Amino acid sequence: LGSPIPAAVPVAERGLFQGSSDSEEEAGPCAAAAAAAAQKREERLRKFRELHMKRNEARKLNHQEVVEEDKRLKLPANWEAKKARLEWELKVQEKKKECAARGEDYERVKLLEISAEDAERWERKKKRKNPDLGFSDYAAAQLRQYQRLTRQIKPDLEQYEKLKEQYGEALYPTSDSLLHGSHVPAKEGIDRMVADLEKQIEKRERYSRRRPYNDDADIDYINERNAKFNKKAERFYGKYTAEIKQNLERGTAV
């Protein structure tokens, strides 16, 4: 009445079943190794594609940079300064339009936006560029004229090299050198000096024209030279001393 006794399995069938299980056990590690190899291959192919894309991107960026550099080299030397100047002028025009639309004075708005430090720095820079302190004496005026003329001189390097070959060390004088009568100026230099002198004479005649005499003007001078000096002083410092002069005339000066 118990469970039925299974029939005996033949020896041949037992061997067949045992061989199939062994082959399955051997096929398992081979399939795992093949899958791992395929995964590694996909990973390498993915990295290769990424490197290939990066190389193409770098090549494209390098080409763009070369094109931009070639454009910059073909531009004028002061292109960046001109570009900055144009951008600044456009901003100024836009600011003027905004101020005009609001009914405000652009110069006043601009001065309100400038700090005291920037204003002082610009004033110092302006004075260094053209330190015109007004007329002090004739020696200072002559020095300014000399500096203006020397800035206009353009040296002739070819003539300088010829003089170096001709005179050698004698071209550079020392305290023992005798220079009087040893130098003969060239005709071009003489013509240039004559042209400059004629230009000065023409300018002097244009600005030294005789002005009409005003009988109603206040007499605050003692002679003609003092009158000219007072006019120069009034031109340079009149706007600063107007209130003091009025107080002195009214007798209310402190």
Automatic annotation (TrEMBL):
Keywords tagged on the record: mRNA processing, mRNA splicing, Nucleus, Spliceosome
Annotated compartments: Nucleus
Xref: InterPro entries: mRNA_splic_SYF2 (IPR013260)
GO biological process: mRNA splicing, via spliceosome
Pfam families found in the cross-reference section: SYF2 (PF08231)
Presence of keyword Nucleus: yes
Stretches the record annotates as Disordered: 16-35
GO CC list: catalytic step 2 spliceosome; post-mRNA release spliceosomal complex; Prp19 complex
Function field: Involved in pre-mRNA splicing as component of the spliceosome.
Similarity annotation: Belongs to the SYF2 family.
Assembly description: May be part of a spliceosome complex.
The name this protein goes by in its record: Pre-mRNA-splicing factor SYF2
UniProt organism field: Casuarius casuarius (Southern cassowary)
Gene expressing this chain: Syf2
